[in-house]
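Please predict the structure of the following assembly.
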Amino acid sequence: MIKNDLFLKALKGQTVTRPPVWMMRQAGRYLPDFMRLKAQYDFFTRCQTPELAAEITVMPIDQIGTDAAILFSDILVVLQAMDIPVEMKSDVGPWIPNPIATAKDVDRVLVPDVEDRLNYVLQAIIQSKGLLDNRVPLIGFAGSPWTLLCYAVQGSGSKTFDKAKAFCFSQPELAHRLLQKITDTTIAYLKAKVATGVDAVQLFDSWGGLLGPDDYQTFSWQYLQQIVTALRTEIPVIVFGKGCWFALREMSQSGAAALGIDWTCSAQNARYLSGGAITLQGNYDPAKLLSPTSQIRTDVHQMINAFGKDRYIVNLGHGILPNIPVAHAQAFVDAVKEYY
Amino acid sequence: MIKNDLFLKALKGQTVTRPPVWMMRQAGRYLPDFMRLKAQYDFFTRCQTPELAAEITVMPIDQIGTDAAILFSDILVVLQAMDIPVEMKSDVGPWIPNPIATAKDVDRVLVPDVEDRLNYVLQAIIQSKGLLDNRVPLIGFAGSPWTLLCYAVQGSGSKTFDKAKAFCFSQPELAHRLLQKITDTTIAYLKAKVATGVDAVQLFDSWGGLLGPDDYQTFSWQYLQQIVTALRTEIPVIVFGKGCWFALREMSQSGAAALGIDWTCSAQNARYLSGGAITLQGNYDPAKLLSPTSQIRTDVHQMINAFGKDRYIVNLGHGILPNIPVAHAQAFVDAVKEYY
């Protein structure tokens, strides 16, 4: 039914002629048409207006030719739906006016009816599917409970998320209550996305790598595992834990269909640490898209050779940067399509 | 000659009754006496005034009882000596008014006479040795060339140091010329420190973990190796690459006396990746010093059991945070001293 099913084949571990390619944040600030919409509408307006979200979602399909679309949205819409207001401040990034700190704060956090509170996301899926017209699969996503806790407690982005970690280490029972609420919401949210028609889901644990291996199990992985377990029979689940090389073994045994890899973990290490059988996705250093396009092409072919063409999805090791020339993103995608 | 030589014994791989302990940034903002001096003198005045630097250096020895002192200074004084001005802005951190961007900029960078330009550091060593009176060893340090390039090019601290990476990936010849200038300066600087009396040196590659394994070799490790090679016959060298688990094997074969480990790399992984024979130093998550003191004590004993008491130096996995209660830092150090 989906014309270009390379991505879905790779998730199933099937043999392909070449690996599929998409880029995290591919519907983003490096695209002139995205910047045009950004000038007209603020961040959460773009997320909350299905027409806009859908228009942005399909941009990289039309303009760069990636093999999968990922719904334009943000991991923080889940916090908003849980009655934790989030604003997006220019130059600052995410801003939570009333960060979680006390038992009362955690009690007040809502486990919402996601079909109501996040209905605009479901509408954006429907509209995106319409615009995609079965050309490529559509990926839905959510942040990991730990990563969402980081923002909810810290109150903003941070290099170290010290406040969030202090919260977990000094009030672990509270942290676990909050994490479970986020987990329950996320499972309902992703199930609604699946019911509305996404073809795969990706879980982003952007700040998992700030925890040591034992704390990662305690404060992040056990909740991610709950989500994978709840979704895995319905849809392929991709888990991307940035900096989480130390947890690849557990992740590979979780029932996830694929694991995202960042650029600090070589293909060889990633295959070894994940047991060698699971589909891997990654891992070009986003900053290397500033290299000359001839270098990008060479790098991409080397990367495919290193990971192997099967059980592999070409991607960046994190989101594409705003200052990447479109021609360089295009060179990255084209290099994959040239591979044989 | 040095009364408490546990730290030097551990660096030599000798058997000890208990491992030595010190903390990165142990002479820092968690100490009320440090805050008193901070209120009176700005950051670089404290670095550049030997009496103040020495007073700060010995504070944790007198007040917390660590087994080694580390000279109070900053990795960025090397850039200043190379005619790259650096300011310290409150709330912003390091600030380079004229970041390096062009060939002309790199040409202008000075490889200075360190005995002249960094004489105040050498005076601070002499004064620190006086105040220490051979109670514990004194550690000198420097930043890695890559980490210094990050600041020199980016112009400030950053989560991703995109500009610095873009500089390396788009103008590699320029990057290598700058890295070599920093390397030559650093070798002369550390040799001067050794001649003045430090008992060990540590190299901080704080941003090495932002590079993939191949780029790490190209833009960071080859320069660190030059420094280790130049110093290793004169003094024990500790290499700490934050996030550089993927390079522990090369590091272990470099001639370094010990390797610093961050908290994302378990003791087991660190021993395995470093080949099992070299002294390791680390790796308590600095944020975990906010745990109850009873928990800190348990954690420290588990950490020593995991690393083993020999060929091991207890430390944090990165610098101590400003908001750590002194009693918690004390509990960390005391837990090591109680170990038997």
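DSSP finds 16 helices and nine strands in chain B. The domain at 6-338 of chain B is CATH 3.20.20.210 (TIM Barrel).
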